[in-house]
Amino acid sequence: MIFCTVITENYLPLAQVLHQSLVQQQPGTRLIILVADRQEATQKGNADLLGLNDLVNAPFFREIENKYAHSNKDVLRWALKPVLLGHLLQSGHEKVAYADPDLFFTGDFNFIADLLNEAAVVLTPHWADLDLRRNDDSIFSILRNGIFNAGFVAAGRKGLPAIHWWAGMCHFKMEKKQELGLYDDQRYLDLMQVQFKEIHVLRHQGCNLAAWNIHSCKREMKDGRLLINGQYNPVFIHFTHDTINNILEKNDEPLRPYLDEYMKLLTAKGFNLLGSTESDATAFHNSWLYRIKHQLRLRTRIKNLLFRLAEKL
What we know:
This protein is an alpha/beta fold. The chain folds into 2 domains: 2-272, Spore Coat Polysaccharide Biosynthesis Protein SpsA, Chain A (Alpha-Beta Complex); 276-313. It is 43% helix and 18% strand. It is built from 11 helices and 14 strands. It has helices spanning 12-25, 61-68, 73-90, 110-115, 136-145, 160-172, 188-195, 241-248, 256-268, 274-285, 288-312, and strands at 2-7, 31-35, 48-50, 95-99, 103-105, 121-125, 148-156, 176-177, 182-183, 199-201, 207-209, 219-222, 225-228, 236-238. The radius of gyration is 20 Å and the shape is globular. The N and C termini lie far apart (53 Å). The model is unreliable at 277-298 (pLDDT under 50).
């Protein structure tokens, strides 16, 4: 199985560290990097780079480029995820996994490739906490953002129809509009299970660890090693801003050693991950929005305590 990701050129260090983490777990793993703000990719080191011109014959590429290339680079690269997946599958690769550049692999992932022996597409749930007694905000988050996270999607050759359909949906609309049920490229994945056969839900809860599953994928130290819900090894972590801030705020301390390693690798490439994150976090903590959020979090904890007490009566 090969991997791919989509970046703008300034985030090449993240893609390189993603590749390092993959190779550390499985030597020889190949990562193909699409640089979405370059027509022709300039070779840098040993990076396996593509530019937009490499996708000219891929289904929906021209339509997506014409619609988004001159408006929003982030929207363009999100919409190009299924285009790149489809291009690589059509180019002869049997199994391809898309990974966001801010993913960091910490454990063996070969079992995902094995799943594609039977599955057409593998999707990763957010694993948000859906127990209303503990966290009634979480259900609304899932209804807004989707069941599945578009930061990791794997597909085999027989998944091509589903991947091309996803690309068509991304061409149709790439917007965050709660009233329309839209969340850029992500909400369409919820429909894929209905539209296509052999769509596999990745139920290994060590995959895609992030801020959104801090409560439902409990981080537990047992015999000196981290386990998720007491049985799953960490496979990959999604270092979004929220995930990083949670760790820095000591709300997700078991992931701190992985963040430290991630930052060390990025620093070696001249990329200061916390340059913006720490200043953003400081500004947020001093804002009225954080004070309200903190009060609401405290009220939620009190409410949850009352629920637990009531259950024992």
